[in-house]
Amino acid sequence: MKLLILDRDGVINQDSDDFIKSPDEWVPIPGSLEAIARLNHEGWHVAVATNQSGIGRGLFDMSTLNAIHRKMHKALAAVGGRIDAIFFCPHAPEDHCSCRKPKPGLFQDIARRYELENLQGVPSVGDSVRDLQAGEPLGCGLHLVRTGKGERLADLGNLPAGTRVHDDLAAFAAWLLEQPKAKSEKTSDKTPDPA
Ligand SMILES: [Mg+2]
Ligand SMILES: [Zn+2]
Fold first, then answer.
1. Which of 150-186 are b and which e, b meaning 16 or more Cβ less than 10 Å from the residue's Cβ?
2. What residues does the record give for site: Contributes to substrate recognition (predicted)?
């Protein structure tokens, strides 16, 4: 199957240093939802891996996070797109969990959910170095977008080897859909359980 993994804040929607704490604060980056829809139409399944430490910090609760995600799913459906599943880390940094990126826990959960031994060649798109570091040990193809935190990332020399840089998610989608078919379908034949 064709699977790809996206960070949320700064990739799909505008990021904020004050956290995205309500559905109103969730505002899509222009072209990002259409890019996901376009990828879906070409057979790509999309999973999201997102740090949501605002929960652990007590800035918002699970029902608010669910409301934010309902808004995202609805906005996506309106343009014909779909996200299979959202994997999130609710912990604060001082919890020292194994899922907060740059730790690979969310990516390991995704591999398990899709019954993949690893994520070799699965494209992963993030706007910060820690997104890339989380996918690297599982073999993800690493992609940085220059939206969100990626816009302000001064030193592109610190990126893991092999990282590709794109202007935004729409530019990433255009790049991915240009790749030869064999390359993009090499991950697995398996179909995941419904999320
Ligand atoms: Mg981000
Ligand atoms: Zn965590």
1. beebeeeeebeeebeebebbbbbbeebeeeeeeebee
2. 100
β-strand 141-145 against 2-6: which pairing, if any? unpaired
On whether the CB atoms of residues 71 and 23 are closer than 8 A, the answer is yes
Write out pLDDT tens, residues 55-78.
Answer: 999 999 999 999 999 999 999 999
Residue pLDDT, tens place only, 121-170 = 999 999 999 999 999 999 999 999 999 999 988 777 789 999 999 999 99
**Longest distance between any two alpha carbons in the chain, whole Å:** 46
**Cβ proximity of 138 and 111 under 8 Å:** yes
Q: 98: number of CA atoms within 13 Å, CB side?
A: 4
CATH number of this structure's domain 2-184: 3.40.50.1000
Where helices occur in the chain by DSSP H, the ranges are 32-41, 53-56, 62-78, 105-113, 129-135, 169-178, 181-184
Binding site, annotated residues: 7, 9, 89, 91, 97, 99, 127
Q: How far is the CA of 100 from the centre of ligand 2 (A)?
A: 4
Reply yes or no on whether 9 is catalytic. Answer: yes
